Amino acid sequence: MNFEELTPVLMCCNNCGHKCIGYRARDETVRFECERCSLKMVSKKISNRVADVRITAPVGQSLF
Ligand SMILES: [Zn+2]
After folding, report:
1. Distance from C-alpha of 25 to C-alpha of 62, rounded to nearest angstrom
2. Cα(58) to centroid of ligand 1, in Å?
3. 57 CA from centroid of ligand 1 (Å)
4. Which tens digits make up the pLDDT trace of 14-23?
5. Is 11 part of any domain?
6. How many domains does the chain have?
7. In a domain, 28, yes or no
8. Does residue 62 form part of some domain?
9. How close is the Cα of 37 to the center of ligand 1, in Å?
């Protein structure tokens, strides 16, 4: 991963609501890790209206 091509994006954690910085790569993929609860999220843009989002829960927690 070339870190010079990453664009910082302000995001809100789906788990705890904390505002953190995610990073958008040139291929429109945004990677985000919450600094409070360590939830991980990867969002890949499919089209202008559709995004494919993968959320990984913190260790010891489950989604929903
Ligand atoms: Zn969080």
Report:
1. 28
2. 9
3. 9
4. 889 999 999 9
5. yes
6. 1
7. yes
8. no
9. 4
